[in-house]
User: What shape does this take?
Amino acid sequence: MRKHILYPVLAVIILVALCSIMIIGELSGYFLNPTRDFETEMTDDKLIVVGISQLGSESVWRTANTDSIQKALSRENGYFAIFSNARQKQENQIKAIRSFISQRVDYIVFSPVTEDGFESVLIEAKDAGIPVILMDRMANVSDDSLYVTHVGSDMKAEGIKAGTWLASELKKKNIADDPVNIVILKGTEGSSSEIGRSEGFHQIAADHPNWNILAEVDADFTTTKAKEEMGKLLREFRDIDVVVSQNDDMTFGAVEALRERGYTTGVNGEVMIISFDACHEALTMVYNGVINVDIECNPIQGEYVSEVIRKLERGETIDKEYFVDEEVFTKDNVINALNSRAY
Ligand code: GYE
Assistant: This one.
């Protein structure tokens, strides 16, 4: 009788013990090496392994750009993507790229927070034989073989569009020769979007001696910083006619600061607003006449990057520069873009 009870009980005890050992083994394996699954997947040679170093999450534009690259480089599309967000800090990007190099990824996609300061890490990537694709912003390097291509916007062209729009608007209003007081809210100092947009605008401003650029301040592409900087500018200057804000997020902050001090903005307002990016919320403000013009910057770059990688995989030659399509939106032409804009 006793034996009959003992055997099933023993069997259950052994089974429970075995299961516990397996579970503990699994868990400790995971905690000792949480990247274990990554490694297995990375060695799956059907997937193309890409390290993505995104510079931050400072704006609506950036969120759309991240979304676009993550969707394009998805598993279903044949990629294994390792994503890293640098939170607007160059040292974080350098660390991320070094870690991609040590993981021996197949490609690095990289959006440099500023143009300068990446030469040595890009040399390390080249020495490791890993092709680097620059997305959105450019890096300033002495040897352009340190990256295979750049996919992004022509930032200087965007700045020129802003200046050209202002010149024609002043002409329409018959005030082309009157003095015009301008302040510029700049994006992250030293980033290619800031450099290009500033250069382009200045190029047009140089032909208009009556354009007084009162101040140019760094507001880091963020709403909070721009609101603070705009507040300071309004305390310093009584008579601002035009605000050139180098992205929509800063425009939101600037408009808030202006409103709080009793200024009206836009088409029928006291202060003209020129913005960049053209995200949905800002296009709504263009439609409502609060922002005069929005110079589009297209964040949907993932497909282009994927296309470049596919070409490289097939051994095809690629161009050194791919510019995405972009428009200029005012109240007159904004409606279609507004209805179809997903970001
Ligand atoms: O305009 C801004 C973002 O580099 C083009 O960065 C990009 C800019 C974009 O934070 O919103």
Remarks:
- Residues 21-36 have pLDDT under 50 and may be disordered.
- The radius of gyration is 26 Å.
